Amino acid sequence: MDTDPAAVKMRLSKTQMSVIWPGLNFLVLALLSREKFGTCEFAYSFRVCPLPRGFDDGTYRPAMTDRIRALWIRMKHIATTGGRVEMSAIEVRAAIYAARVNLQLLRRNVHDARRKDAKTKKTLGLDRTAIKKRKQQTGPVIKSLERNMKRATRSSLKFTPRSEFAEMSKEWQSHLRWMKFHLAYFKVVEG
Fold this sequence. Notes:
Blueprint lengths: L7 E5 L1 H24 L24 H15 L6 E5 L1 H24 L5 H7 L3 H32 L2 H21 L9
Antiparallel strand pairs: 1-2
Helix pairs in contact: 1-2, 1-3, 1-5, 3-5
């Protein structure tokens, strides 16, 4: 596999990987579930609550999906230990979204466990203090990734024209919107 010349090298610690990996793994497994069954557990319920006419729920981009899968494969071996990895600007953005998904996933699990007793929630790590701790871990990881995203963006602009990079960024935004509605919609849909 050819490496992206605009990719930046970074070191991710074990703690950073504990914030990024669960979200990235969730996204890829949701994508695989969607490919196999046509939908996934956390997709927006379009049948129950249709979106208003003209609402942009994003566009599926196979190239972006392939990049996320490639990132997932590269990060799999450092998921529990941390280590060095090379990422392009789009892949760093995917890692930032994965960190946010991880926090949202914990919030959803805490919400789903609301009827359990306090002792069980604490043992499972599904209480309010778990959310607070995860939030404290997620903030610095996202800030670190955002710094690396700036580096990756500058590196990409050296190899690609600004207009082409702007188009790629628009494609990413559209694909990100698609992922939010079709793979990782955590809000409860009232029906």
